[in-house]
Amino acid sequence: MKLTLFLFAVAPFFVFAQLTSEQEAMFERMEEIDRYIHRAPIFLDRSSQKSLRSTGEIRDESCDEVENPHANGLLTYCTIQFQGDLEVRYRVFGEPQRLHIIRVDIQSSQWNLERDVAVGQPLERVIEALGEPTKRERERLVYSGETEQAIFELGDGSVTRIRLKYYAG
């Protein structure tokens, strides 16, 4: 009785989706927007909760603790309202503690962003600094990256409010 052994070697079969140059440009643009939004609030020191609180005079502050659904321990969600129409929403978690900005709302020209973008400037200045928005509505410009988003609310052709959202879903 002969035993015949067949050995089949199957080479891994990979399918690579080739992105079009238009798709590549779209992804590069989204990454550029994300990088800008992450760096934009040049007045914020995110190294710790204490340094964040030293941004300016605090008008109001509130915090809530909730169970962390992804790990043992608590998540602390805080909102700080600073004099000068600035509001920062963030969370603190982990050991050692990590700080994660969720949202920054600006309603005053006192708080300039990177590339010298600020409340009170004309719509054209925002487009000059950031390029064409992802979405343009009558009263706002929206710049959406892969994970971040900047919304510029407009009135009479000028920026009246800036909202930066981090890990916007």
Characterization of this structure:
This protein has 169 residues and is of the alpha+beta class. It is 19% helix and 35% strand. It has three helices and eight strands. The protein has an eight-stranded antiparallel sheet. The longest helix has 19 residues, at 21-39. It is globular and about 45 Å long.
Q: In short, what is this structure?
A:
By secondary structure, the chain is of the alpha+beta class.
Which features does this protein show?
169 residues; alpha+beta; eight-stranded antiparallel beta sheet; globular
Question: What assembly state would you assign to the polypeptide chains in this entry?
Answer: single chain
Instruction: Output the number of helix runs.
Output: 3
Q: Which residue ranges are poorly predicted, with pLDDT under 50 across at least 5 consecutive positions?
A: 5-10
Major sheet characteristics:
8 strands, antiparallel
Shape: globular
How many whole angstroms does the radius of gyration measure? 23 Å
- The secondary-structure element order is HHEEEEHEEEE
Percent helix, as a range, is 10-25%
Category by helix and strand content: alpha+beta
**Residue fraction in strands:** 25-35%
Strand order, sheet with most strands: 1-2-3-4-8-7-6-5
Mean pLDDT across every amino acid position: 89
Tell how many strands the DSSP assignment holds: 8
N- and C-termini, Cα separation = 66 Å
